[in-house]
Amino acid sequence: MPSIRWLFTSGTPGLDEDGNLPDDITGQADLAWRNIIRMLESSKMTMADIVKVTHYLTRESDIAEYVKVLSHYLGGARPASMLMIIPALVKPGFLLEIEVIAAQY
Residues 77, 47: contact at Cβ < 8 Å? Predict the structure, then answer.
């Protein structure tokens, strides 16, 4: 039986290395996905290894702009995905958090 390496991320917000938070969904989504890519790379994984994504947005009006950023980063990958609109996240100003599960066979 082949072994599987798993990576589970917690909710990843769109913060930069200094803790700065862009005001808009595009900036936050771009940073969140860049952070996820760094986590994947540190585990010797790629976007192709993602098997499940859970997206948490605080504003329904941000869906269209978020999907543009998401499509840019996912490319042709089509992991299982769930998007939820929730009233708030832990830090004021967070517009999204993203959880990823990746697996490498």
Answer: yes
Backbone angles phi, psi at 54, to 5 degrees: -115, 125
- Transcribe 35-57 into DSSP letters: HHHHHHHHTT--GGGEEEEEEEE
Note the helical H segments in the chain: 25-42, 63-74
Judge whether residue 81 has pLDDT over 80: yes
Burial 20-29 (b: 16+ CB within 10 A, else e): ebbeebbbbb
Of 8, 13, 50, the closest CA to residue 30 belongs to 13
pLDDT tens string 11-59: 999 999 999 999 999 999 999 999 999 999 999 999 999 999 999 999 9
